[in-house]
Amino acid sequence: MSNSNSFVRSENKFVVLEKSFVEIFKSLEKNMLVDSFKKDSVITLIKSIYLDDDKFSLFREYLSKRKFRFKIRFRNYGHDFKFDEDDFWAEFKVKYKKISRKERFLISPAIFKPFLNGENVEAEIMRLNNNSEKVLQVYRVMSELIKLTNLHPVLTTTYERVAFTDESKDVRITVDRNIKHHSHDDKKKTNKLHAIVCETKI
Q1: Residues 117 and 110: beta-carbon distance below 8 Å
Q2: Which of 31, 83, 94, 115 is most buried per CB count within 10 Å?
Q3: Nearest Cα residue to 14 out of 185, 137, 198, 162
């Protein structure tokens, strides 16, 4: 998995029947390299917390395939069926047509809620991210968007991912399974997607 904080890619997603996982995995394994979070673990666990407003405006823009849209999420990785409890990623993703640009920075559990509540956590963000001025700019943009559009956690998604890449590292294919959506509303429902999601990232 890349340690980069900035990504510019063309992305395409495909929903596939669950029973196709083994066939897809074997086919990709023959032609590409496994790109895993931990070298001795093929499967990477991913947990993403998505922000939105009370009207789910960001999600509606996604459904309508609006040419220009953005999302803010917080992502944690794990392996051996256990999530890491240390620092995780705050991600700001902007999409125009099929070109996606993602910027991210490390954030600690201790400042997660203060950040969402609009408190100034610049000093801690800078400490965690090697005093990067670019990270500071991304943090400030995310903070303003959260404040101006009243964003808050609405959904947590967890799944298992297997990723593949070519030798140049310019092409990446991910295969996600056991996808579960946990609602943050009063009902706090959990729904499982009975399918797998494949995505190409170039």
Answers
A1: no
A2: 115
A3: 198
Nearest to 179 by CA among 195, 166, 165: 195
Q: Which residues of the chain have pLDDT under 70?
A: 1-3, 37, 39
Nearest Cα to Cα of residue 162 among 24, 11, 31: 24
Buried b (16+ CB within 10 A) or exposed e, 86-110: ebbbbbbbebeeeebebbbbbbeee
- DSSP-assigned letters across all residues of 50-92: EEE-TT-HHHHHHHTT-SEEEEEEEEEEEETTEE--S-EEEEE
Determine phi and psi for 167, rounding to 5 degrees.
Answer: -65, -30
> Element (H or E) spanning 134, and its range?
helix 133-148
Query: What token pair was written down for 23?
Result: 């066939």
| C-alpha of 159 from chain center | 11
What pLDDT does residue 3 have?
53
Of the candidates 93, 94, 96, 126, the one whose C-alpha atom is nearest the C-alpha of residue 108 is: 126
Q: How far apart are CA 165 and CA 31, in angstroms?
A: 9
Burial 9-26 (b: 16+ CB within 10 A, else e): bebeeeeeeeeebeebbe
Residues contacting residue 113 through CB under 8 Å, at least 6 positions apart: none
Which helix or strand (DSSP H or E) is residue 126 part of? helix 122-128
Q: Is residue 26 classed as helix, strand or coil in its secondary structure?
A: helix
